[in-house]
Specification:
The chain is of the alpha/beta class and 272 residues long. The protein has a single domain, classed as pyruvate-formate lyase- activating enzyme (Alpha-Beta Horseshoe). The chain is built from ten helices and eleven strands. The chain has an eight-stranded mixed beta sheet, covered by helices on one side. Strands 1-5-4 form a three-stranded mixed beta sheet, with no helix packed on it. A hairpin with a 7-residue loop joins strand 2 and strand 3. Helix 8 runs antiparallel to helix 9. The longest helix has 16 residues. The radius of gyration is 19 Å and the shape is globular. The structure holds iron/sulfur cluster (SF4).
């Protein structure tokens, strides 16, 4: 792992995401190395154009954490292009440093992770007025999880995180993201977790050029029976798959009293 400490001016940056006003990324790069990672574009901004995604991490050193003047009532997402509880957080505590500055403020903090290490900060979370912790999970099959998210926590560990958050009265959500066509069984995940999850977010798999080949190669090698379907969706841009699935999920959640948010977006999707 190529590791370096870099000076950084701002911990909170304005966000263009529909769900957040500010984002916090205390690290650049992510050792979890998920094969579909949307954040890989960060390589060129972070002066790592030729380094392999997942094999470098920049630890941001803040002189001081500046809190924006308009923070009141805002939603702060931790994190959007790294995992805030990647393995280096246990040593460097950069996410914790920022949380310490945010506690007590009149804003909502949302944490999103694939790591069991988030449980380290449970006592800190309890000091917030408004906080929620999300766990990303798109399968209950740990063999599939190992293929797509080789260094993140196991399915069982993520379930344990959600249960522990519930036991400690910290609001939680499960990000069913990204949904892999024919491999993510969203109903099975909801059935297994609905007793200890507050709400669900759904996001479709969006394959951009940097990692499209990587994902399609995995599907051809390990799930060859699905390769034709993946080619139809991702190479020939069959728009109907996602719009049908989106409708199906909405009907399922509404019919079963499941709280949910949809983040199905794809430039090629056009609703029917
Ligand atoms: S945990 Fe998130 S940021 Fe890290 S590699 Fe996986 S998808 Fe990317």
């Amino acid at each position: 792992m190529l590791l370096k400490e870099v000076a950084a001016n701002t911990a909170l940056t304005k966000s263009k995401l529909p769900s957040a006003d500010y984002v916090v990324n205390a690290y650049t790069g992510c050792p979890h190395k998920c094969i579909y990672c949307y954040a890989e574009f960060m390589k060129k901004f972070a002066k790592h154009p030729d380094d392999e995604w997942g094999e470098f991490i920049d630890i941001k050193i803040f002189e001081r954490i500046k809190i924006p003047k308009d923070i009141e009532g805002k939603y702060i997402l931790i994190s959007s292009v790294t995992d805030p509880y990647n393995p280096y957080e246990m040593e460097y505590e950069k996410t914790k440093e920022i949380l310490e500055e945010l506690k007590g403020l009149d804003c909502c903090v949302g944490i999103l992770t694939k790591s069991k290490s988030v449980l380290r900060d449970m006592e800190l979370f309890k000091q917030f007025k408004n906080i929620e912790v999300g766990v990303s999970m798109n399968t209950t099959d740990d063999d599939f999880r190992k293929r797509i998210e080789p260094r993140a926590s196991s399915v069982e560990e993520r379930l344990e995180v959600l249960k522990t958050l519930r036991k400690n009265n910290i609001k939680n959500w499960l990000a069913l993201s990204p949904i892999f066509p024919f491999l993510t069984d969203y109903k099975k995940i909801i059935e297994q977790t609905k007793d200890f999850v507050d709400y669900y977010c759904f996001e479709n798999l969006n394959l951009r050029s940097e990692y499209k080949d990587r994902v399609l190669t995995l599907i051809r090698r390990e799930y060859n029976n699905l390769h034709k379907n993946y080619k139809a969706i991702f190479l020939y841009e069959d728009q109907s798959y996602w719009s049908d699935l989106e409708q199906e999920i909405i009907e399922y959640c509404e019919g079963n009293d499941i709280k949910y948010k949809m983040y199905f977006y794809h430039e090629k999707i056009r609703k029917k």
